[in-house]
Amino acid sequence: MASILVVYGSGEGQTQKVAEHVEDVLSDRGHDVTVRRVTERGDVVVEEFDAVLVGSPVNNRRHRLDVVEFVESNREVLATRPNGFFQLSLASTVPLRWAQDGARQFVDSLVTKTGWHPEHVGRFAGAVKYSQYDPLQRAVFKLVSAVTTGDTDTSRDYEYTDWNEVEAFATTFAEDVERRLTASIEETEHAGTVRLSWVAAGIALLFGVAGVAYWATARQFTPTEC
Ligand SMILES: Cc1cc2nc3c(=O)[nH]c(=O)nc-3n(C[C@H](O)[C@H](O)[C@H](O)COP(=O)(O)O)c2cc1C
């Protein structure tokens, strides 16, 4: 069992929903999962976790600043354990090359900006939550939706996240964590066995030397017959 931290930022709650789904998948595999909004980490110490996942939506072609700041200040720690990044965007709702390239570029920009190279990357389609937008945002999203998804009914919300994709991402991450944890335990056990063998050899040598010394001493003091 590994301790896994899932840190995320979220505006309208879809990234939070994904983080919680990831938590369910990891917990079902027996891991100890802590999920925290990046701004509400409290006394969470990143170094104390075996593995870390970070999630952010794309807002105005960038990831949330609070998430970027978290990555920047924890880059070195992230690199020393299994780690991954998941992103939500509307670009990923469009099954066209230019849109998929765009979604990939958002991640590339994060890598360039922070110097963190996440080992696992999930690019998920997000949601359009008209019910949570102000009138201007609603109008902008209606326009964008008209040329992308066609979902322009502002009286309801639209969720595009493919939960099977989220599940596959979390499962692959968990498998990697489990494999590396097992390898590290085996390595520790092997090192312990090697150490024990050296101790046993040392003790045997000591007994050998003591035996020879005893024999030599006993021989010297044995009275010789005339
Ligand atoms: C103000 C705003 C700006 C956005 N900008 C982009 C963008 O530039 N590119 C994109 O693909 N999606 C964009 N989106 C879509 C979000 O990434 C998507 O709605 C996501 O599901 C939001 O996640 P959240 O609910 O966790 O905040 C934007 C959404 C909002 C509300």
Keywords:
binds flavin mononucleotide, electron transfer activity, rod-shaped, six-stranded mixed sheet, Protoporphyrinogen oxidase, 18% strand, 226 residues, 8 strands, 53% helix, two-stranded antiparallel ribbon, Rossmann fold, membrane, alpha/beta
In short:
With 226 residues, the chain is of the alpha/beta class.
Topology:
Blueprint: E1 3-8, H1 14-28, E2 32-37, E3 51-59, E4 62-63, H2 65-79, E5 83-89, H3 97-114, E6 120-125, E7 127-128, H4 135-147, E8 158-159, H5 163-221
Parallel strand pairs: 1-2, 1-3, 3-5, 5-6
Antiparallel strand pairs: 3-4, 7-8
Bound molecules: flavin mononucleotide (FMN).
Flavin mononucleotide is lined by residues 10-15, 57-61, 88-91, 126-128.
Transmembrane segments: 196-216
Protein name: Protoporphyrinogen oxidase
Pfam families: Flavodoxin_5
Structural account:
The protein is α/β, with parallel strands linked by helices and 226 residues long. The chain has a domain at 3-126 and 161-183: Rossmann fold, CATH 3.40.50.360. The chain is built from five helices and eight strands. The strands form two sheets. Strands 1, 2, 3, 4, 5 and 6 form a six-stranded mixed beta sheet that branches. It has a two-stranded antiparallel sheet with strand order 7-8. Helix 1 (14-28) packs across helix 5 (163-221). The longest helix is centred in the C-terminal third of the chain and has 59 residues, at 163-221. Residues 10-15, 57-61, 88-91, 126-128 line the site of flavin mononucleotide.
Order of helices and strands: EHEEEHEHEEHEH
Q: What is the CATH superfamily classification of the domain at 3-126 and 161-183?
A: Flavodoxin domain
State the helical fraction: 40-55%
The largest pleated sheet is described as: 6 strands, mixed
Question: What structural category arises from helix and sheet content?
Answer: alpha/beta
**What is Rg?**
29 Å
Q: Please name the CATH architecture of the domain at 3-126 and 161-183.
A: 3-Layer(aba) Sandwich
Helix count, DSSP H or I runs of 4 or more residues: 5
Number of strands: 8
Instruction: Give the CATH topology of the domain at 3-126 and 161-183.
Output: Rossmann fold
Bound molecules: flavin mononucleotide
Provide the low-confidence segments as ranges. none
